[in-house]
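Re: your question from the hallway

Yes, I did run it. Sequences:
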Amino acid sequence: MSNADQISEYIVREFLPDLTPSQLPPDLDLLADGAIDSLGVLKMIAWVEHHFRLAVGDTDLDPENFRSVNAIDAYVARSQSTAATGG
Amino acid sequence: MTRTGRHSETADSVLRWADKTPEAPALWWKGTTTSYRELADATADARARLDEHVPAGATVAVLDDKSPGTVATALACLATGRPALLPSPTLPPDQVTAVMAEAHCAYALAGTAITVTAPAHGGGAVPPGTALVLTTSGSTGIPKAVPLPHRAVDAFTDWAADAFGIAESTPVLNYAPLNFDLCLLDVWTTLAHGGQVVLVDPSTAASGRGLLRLLRTHRIEVVQAVPLCYALVGAQARVEGGGPLGSVRHAAFTGDVMPEQALADLAELMPGARLHNIYGCTETNDSLIHEVDRSLTQSAPMPLGRPLPGVRLRLRDPDGRVLNGPGSGELEVSTPFQSTGYADPSRAAEKFVLEAAADGGPGTWWFRTGDLVARDTDGALRLIGRLDHQVKIRGVAVNTGEVEQVLLEHPEVLEAGVTTVPDPVEGRRLIAVVRLEDCSTVTSLDLKRHCTARLARGWVPGLLMPVTEPLPRTGTGKVDRRMIAQTVAAPAATAS
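Structure:
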């Protein structure tokens, strides 16, 4: 399963349990549409850290990084490549 | 046939129709009719049983489900001056026992059997002159016994017949169970004036198709029901077609917020009907009425309208001061139709307040409704929600009733229940269970979007569960939030 699929699967399970992951548009603005509230974002960040074995630094806690499945996917990819190159 | 004529003007009026129009239909039930003569005969039989087993003036719990026979039993109680305690048929047995004890009721009638429980108390807890003992919903603990005096019942049936043009042979739909105060209009007013009561059996109450069929078959002229009934009928009519219901002259809704979609459907389905939003409580009966202006698009929430004749009202702010002019506070009402106070005086003391008269007269009993109401500069009143529906979610005060109202504004939502469940992270989490129309494909995401566009962020339920089965309801037909919290708590806890 791609990272994006795993993220969709998590969001649906945690916040929109009646949906299937395919019903969640990857560009949906999760905050603006009320799918996830601010506390939910913190929950989700904790999951991203744990699931993808990342440390989300304070400077990365920008809601823009977590606004949609695509945004989270991009953030994870960026963080993993930074980690891989030892940066 | 023997009649006393001493206790209930309403019961005596009903029984007089057995002489005036003996073969005219009094009740319709499951496709069969009961004439006024048959109703009087059944009442006489019930009365003979009561006279044999139950002392004069003793309260009798009528435990049967709604049927013509149950109406006759209640009528026999009214006519003989025995208060009829009507618990909700959905009440668990231990709660029925508790309500009977509270009303000092030692006699229970089911079918033709009368059972006697050892009287736990000497005196009667309901005052002389009590006609009916209704029960509150029980959404906040054990239901309370609400005695209604004969004078209240008689005053109400007089008002209602006049207000809704209920006369000889008028067909009126009775949706509510017999323990609801709504039956004062649908059943007792109609029978006292020689009309035809079309009883909705509980097996049909959740079926839009069955309800629509009854409305059409009987050419119903007057309908009073909770919004759910109209939502079901409206949704069914949209699917079925079949044209408007031209016979309906009055359609009244009460007991809950009327969803916009249901109101729009209703206006289309019943083009000749005057539409009324009625506000009342079991304890006071109908208190305020608002006639919907068909030429205007309604914006929720609907005004509460004007007080019925003889009804007084006032608002009390959180500091306990009576509000004059605009503002919001708890609604207090005093009506000619109200209860003498709960059978349990300690429970009555919190809700029924005596205001002494300036001239040393009898004073006014006010009922504290528990409803938060706002009055604007024009004096128009709007219901904000239940005071006991105020919850705090992460420090934000949320009124769950208002959230429900917003969910009900969604065109495919039939019922909504909002409450809180404990959450290890959030403390309490706001949750909603929403019943959608049968063929709806709306998801929790759609509903969250709907809420987000209309509510402050902290008011959007964290968990929204769409369902297609009916929501659990309390004995008086309110969405049962406690039950919803219990059923949601398990999955919500594991999801956290």
